[in-house]
Amino acid sequence: MPTVQNYKNRRKQLLSAIETPVLLMAGGPMSRNYPANWHPFRADSTFLFFFPNPEPNAAALFDPKDKSVTLFLDERTAEDALWHGPVPSFTEMKKATGVSAIEKRSDLAKFVAKKCGKRQVHGVAIPDHRATTELKSITKERLDFYNAKKVGNADVLLAIAKLRNIRTEAELTEMRAAAAITREAHTVAMARTRAGIYEQELAGHVEGTFARHGCVPAYHTILSVRGEVLHNNEHHNLLHDTDLVLLDAGAERPSGWCADVTRTWPVNGHFSPEARDIYDIVLAAEVAAIDAVAPGVRYRDLHMTSSRVIADGLSQLGILKGDADDLVETGTHALFFPHGVGHLIGIDVHDMEGFGDLVAYEKGRKRSTQFGTCNLRLDIDLEPGMCFTIEPGIYFVPAILRDKAMRAQFKGQVDFKRAEQFLTMNSLRGFGGIRIEDDVLCTKTGPDVLTAAVPKERLAVEALVGSAGA
Ligand code: GLY
Ligand code: MN
Ligand code: MN
Known about the structure:
Elements: H1 4-17, E1 22-25, H2 45-50, E2 59-63, E3 68-73, H3 78-84, H4 90-97, E4 101-104, H5 108-116, E5 122-123, H6 129-139, H7 154-165, H8 169-191, H9 199-212, E6 216-217, E7 222-224, E8 244-249, E9 251-252, E10 261-266, H10 273-291, H11 299-316, H12 324-329, H13 357-360, E11 387-390, E12 393-395, H14 398-401, H15 404-409, H16 416-424, E13 433-435, E14 438-443, E15 446-449, H17 458-464
Parallel strand pairs: 1-5, 3-4
Antiparallel strand pairs: 1-2, 2-3, 6-9, 7-8, 8-10, 11-14, 12-13, 14-15
Helix pairs in contact: 1-7, 8-9, 10-11
The structure holds glycine and manganese (II) ion (2 copies).
């Protein structure tokens, strides 16, 4: 866990970067049915970035005028002590967080009005609509989390993003710890894989591993023999001997820092000739993009590097027809690689995606409108300290490969008969998909793969699968 001083430094950096007061909200607990039965509380990511162990309903006012940070917390009551045990006092919380002052949460609006007077206060909209509505009533801004143009004042968002984008050593230590736990979860799932069990059994091992280390899943665990369904949240399929398992799972530390890793392996421990060919292309596409990481490199070029390797590989297998550059130019590769090569990762698994393309796309750059490339979530120039994923994949998606319009548009570039063989293999379940994903830190001298310890070489993966026995 970063130290109180680490958090103080981050807050000091924000105070130096803003000209007007900024009000942040942690958000509150969501009730499942009656108020005391909550969904697990998780503070908004920007709040987590600036404060250790945020309490539900916390708020914080950053005032650049006197360089103060005031933290607002719910008042302590005898009821709290009865139901939740001893709760630290405001004095104890001031020490634990290192803020300038702690005030009563119920006084938030009154306190902000008095301290800031006529100065404009800017807020940052968060996924908790109730907190955002309250924030709007205080700052009088048009805030809305799910509307990229209304998340907050652009200068404030960019000031926050500048800090959240470049990791300190303490933050990297957290990400490396999340990566180590994620490695354990992936290797446990590989070792426990065998035909005849359900996906949920392996998903339980993955999430149980996170829990044993005090972590939660950073996002809904994708564990499926239907790897072609990109964000498949179901775990109800039975594993067949000839299936491929795709696991996309990452641990989130109590501090919020997380990992996001994908591996794919054969249920029976042996890649079929077709799976081996596709796996080798995906791995080559991943490694080529990682090897190209360096300060100043445009992230979109990493996407194009992976796309070309995939186009070339599929062309050599006779699934695509033609030269890799032409296939990428026409967007043909996207029929098999329809998503972007990755995204920022940090305290959010898709870090700051809630800020929209303001942060993810360099000023003046716009999303492509081409199928596939339009899903590229990131197009910035890399700097030392930035962390992002590299996650190419090849998928055989019936909805794409049997689409009449796609077949007409790409009939010169795709051997759809050959593609159909992949859609119907494996007792008609189809090939599915293969993705390989790692988390990468850009350093002055090139890439540092934070998740490198999760096995991905084909032979290492095959050796692990099923090794736990029945
Ligand atoms: N786990 C979702 C993703 O890889 O983006
Ligand atoms: Mn990812
Ligand atoms: Mn992922």
